[in-house]
Amino acid sequence: MKKYISVLLIMLSFQAVAQLTDSSLPPLDKSPMDMSYYPDNYPILKIQGKATEPLVMRVVYSRPQINSRKIFGDLQPYGNVWRLGANEATEIDFFNDVKVNGKKIKKGRYTLYAIPYPDKWTLIINKDTDTWGSFRYDSTKDAVRMDLPVKKNEITQAMTIVFTKTIEGANMDMYWEDVKVSLPIVL
Q1: What residue segments make up the domains of the chain, in order of their start?
Q2: Residue 161 in 3-state DSSP?
């Protein structure tokens, strides 16, 4: 009997330590952070020795989920500046100079914002970085802003940003709910 009580006490001690350790860590985020590259899968191609083009850009963003909510026009009101994701404002790194909407954007790191409307998004590339949400958005730091048409698309549960190759460079394609918006980037 003593042996069983000792084993039980040891197991309870391990459980208490495990709970103490787990509670000291932050919980998993509901909107996980993700990263997309152009060229697609660049880090994997690089370590495999299969990269045929240099790294041009990457976007770092948190991926909110629909979770039975109405997103555009409700959770994200039309006409309001949005961080283009969840949590920290979405950031894009350009590893070379590029052109967006006819304007040269120097290589570097920028924040992306959008102002959604039913038929278009005003997409903003802003020089302020390392910010949470769009609470401190400062339009005087805009590098470029442009209107992009909204296309209806199949439902995308988790917001997704990917790059697709084009003749002049790449599109940064943004999907969420039943919306697709593409930002043309000239390399």
Answers
A1: 29-186
A2: strand
